[in-house]
Amino acid sequence: MRLNVEDAPAEIWLKLENLQPIGSFKLRGAGNAMRLAPRETLEKGVYTASAGNMAQGLAWNARRLGVPCTVVVPETAPQTKLAAIERLGARIVKLPYARWWQVLEDHGYPGIEGLFIHPVSDRAVIAGNGTIGLEILEDLPDVDTVIVPFGGGGLSCGIACALRPLRPQAKVFASEVETAAPFAASVAVGKPAAIEHTASFVDGIGGKSVLLEMWPLASRLLAGSLVVSLAQTAAALRLLVDRNHVIAEGAGATSVAAALDGKAEKGKVVCVVSGGNIDPATLAKILGGQNP
Predict the structure, then answer these.
(1) CA-based end-to-end distance of the chain
(2) Which of 4, 137, 204, 220 could be joined to 251 by an S-S link, Cβ 3.0–4.6 Å?
(3) Rounded CA separation 208/105 (Å)
């Protein structure tokens, strides 16, 4: 779908992952990782650490395969996503944000049985995300730039891995919000850098740092980070609703905000709208002109 804006700085197209059954792209990576795992391993259950979308992706696939699912979430996870996780049949374990982040670094949490599927750095998850890149090329083979919300790099690196051999001239940029932009900070110093994470309505991206195991891949494959403000993100979200009748969550709107800011290359720009799981009350405030 093309963004319906007449005076945009480029030809902007939308890759609408918010239209997936769970409202985000996470269905792909979770499904691929589970399909590749031995059945006897899956029977013990699966679990992940997620602020909401990977949790839903894993829970959706676990329910389809009939295996137990547990999700470790930060205490700041929005209620809308928590309700969806429970609706899909997964058990929720809440942790303070710092301890939750430690689960990502440790690749597991003591006391939970089953296969831990990392939401970012699992190779099968990254490969599953890469199918988005293939679909972009099917629909727009002459794409010049792809902008991808950066949560941990699993989505952007997966897409870049798919594009690199088939459309090497296309650049893949991360999009981040100014209140939590670990990839931009890491690029600036040439190594993974820790940042002060500030919670906002953009809850699906922006960790404390770039995970050590993701830095070599992200630094090699991505052209850089395009950092936008909360106000720009809210404006992009309103524009998507008004012009294209598309509901995005904060993270998913950052790619559009970056493209509208003109920070990307000119030509044909694809913005990955990574998800649409936004709390209705938050959406109402943004559509009413507030920046929560």
Answers:
(1) 28
(2) 204
(3) 11
- Report the amino acid identity of residue 108: G
Ranges of the chain with pLDDT below 50: none
In a 3-state reduction of DSSP, which class is residue 49? Answer: strand
- Distance from chain centroid for Cα 169: 23
Please state, in angstroms and rounded to a whole number, the distance separating the CA atoms of residues 38 and 235.
45
Could you say which DSSP state residue 115 is in?
A: E
What confidence tens digit (pLDDT) does each residue in 155-178 have?
Answer: 999 999 999 999 999 999 999 999
pLDDT in tens, 82-112: 899 999 999 999 999 899 989 999 999 999 9
pLDDT given at position 108: 95
Would you give the distance in Å from CA 251 to the centre of its chain?
Answer: 7
Give the span between the Cα atoms of 26 and 194, in whole angstroms. 25
Helix H or strand E encompassing 103: helix 97-106
Q: Please state, in angstroms and rounded to a whole number, the distance separating the CA atoms of residues 254 and 287.
A: 16
Q: Report the C-alpha gap between 64 and 59 in whole angstroms.
A: 9
**What distance in Å separates the CA atoms of residue 144 and residue 239, rounded to the nearest whole number?**
23
User: Can you tell me the distance from the alpha carbon of 96 to that of 110, in angstroms, rounded to the nearest whole number?
Assistant: 15
Could you give the dihedral angle defined by the CA atoms of residues 251, 279, 26 and 266, in that order, rounded to the nearest 10 degrees? -30
Q: For 100, how many CA atoms within 13 A lie in the half-sphere containing its CB? A: 21
Burial class (CB in 10 A: 0-12, 13-18, 19+), 237: buried
Task: Output the pLDDT for position 79.
Answer: 83
